Amino acid sequence: MMITSEILDLLKVDDDELEEILEACNWTGTDEFTDEQSETLLVMKTLHDEKGYDYIDAYLRSIGQRLQVNDNLFNEIYAAIQAENGFLIDYRDRFEEICLQVNDCVSPAEAIKPPQPVVEDTPPVVEASADPESAQMDRFIDEQAKAAIATTVSQIKGFADLAYEEQERLKTLFMTKYRQGLAKELLSDGFKAEFMARMTASLEGKGQEKKPTELTGVQNPTPLLSSSN
To answer: Which pLDDT score, from 0 to 100, does residue 114 have?
Structure first.
């Protein structure tokens, strides 16, 4: 086990560069390092200095070297990632698994695909008809639904009869209002007084000639214009 100060001496880097290296490994905040981690950091520093790889690339190559994935296979994996418009850092957490699959003769294009969710087998659905009580309940619901439909249809048919009923109601209302209004006029004191006065005058021969419309309430037809011929 090595501590941070020992790692700084091993890699010959300052605190800032060590932080960059640890960030590439997703080991930020680590203060103690196992022998395997220390070896990985040393390989990364060497690849960075001698090959010019950035630390992310160097970290993934160090994983490949540990799992005996040669440079050609690594480059094929990298090419497959680029073909998917991806970046190495996107596959950092799965890179060891990808290398193991490639070692098992899985193509890099297949190996980089995200794992598919496991679909658990679901128990077969037991049909309701297999249960006698469920079948009886289904029949009951079906019968009630049909009865409700028949009731609704019957009610809708009854709407047609409402037109005649409404017509009769309006006729009755009209006659009631007409009779009430006429009775009010005929039984008023003013009408009685005028009626008696005109009847008395008529019996005494003093009544004035009345227009036909005043007696019948019917308008005379408009006379035709005479022709000049």
So the answer is: 85
Which residues fall within 8 angstroms of residue 12, CB to CB, at 6 or more apart?
A: 45
Cα separation, 28 vs 38, in Å, equals 14
Q: CA 115 → CA 85, 103, 160, 179, distances in Å?
A: 18, 17, 66, 91
Query: Positive or negative, the Cα torsion across 194, 199, 202, 203?
Result: negative
Helix axes 71-83, 55-66, angle to 10 degrees: 130
- Among the listed ranges 5-19, 37-51, 64-78, 141-155, which one has the minimum average pLDDT value? 141-155
Residue 51 burial (C-beta neighbours within 10 Å; 0-12, 13-18, 19+) = exposed
- Banded model confidence at residue 227, pLDDT cuts 50, 70, 90: very low
- 210 phi and psi angles, rounded to 5 deg: -100, 145
Centre a 10 Å sphere on the Cβ of residue 33 and count the other Cβ atoms it contains.
20
3-state secondary structure (DSSP) of residue 3: strand
